[in-house]
Automatic annotation (TrEMBL):
This is Secretory carrier-associated membrane protein. The gene is LOC107895816. Residues 5-32 form a coiled coil. The chain crosses the membrane at residues 33-53, 59-79. The keyword Membrane applies. Probably involved in membrane trafficking.
């Protein structure tokens, strides 16, 4: 019985490590994408401002500002769904780990689980 609990605990720690690694990877990708989008749209405004100073019409500059204002929230909306699904899968995995610990807790009332 004790060996079984130790094996389950070891298995759950491995799943938890996998879950944490997956979550960190998703956060890193999300941050990279957000920074890249903001950098790209900021660069667009800078380049169009330089072109406007050199003699291009102000219409191009206003279009770049509109693109920047709508592009950042638009990008968030476009890839929010895929990130939400990925995080939902992560939460499902966490719930699975918690539910798999429940029978061990019911079987052995003296069992102690560390958070």
């Amino acid at each position: 019985m004790i060996l079984d609990l130790k094996a389950r605990e070891k298995e759950h720690k491995a799943k938890e490590a996998k879950l944490n690694k997956h979550e960190q990877e998703l956060r890193r990708k999300e941050d990279t994408i957000a920074r890249g989008l903001v950098l790209c749209l900021t660069w667009n405004v800078v380049v169009v401002t330089i072109a406007w100073i050199k003699g291009e019409g102000p219409t191009v500059w206003f279009l770049a500002i509109i693109y920047f204002i709508s592009g950042v929230p638009g990008g968030y909306v476009m890839w929010y769904r895929s990130l939400y699904r990925a995080m939902r899968d992560t939460w499902d995995m966490a719930a699975e780990i918690c539910l798999s610990l429940l029978p061990s807790l019911v079987e052995d009332r003296n069992a102690e689980f560390q958070v």
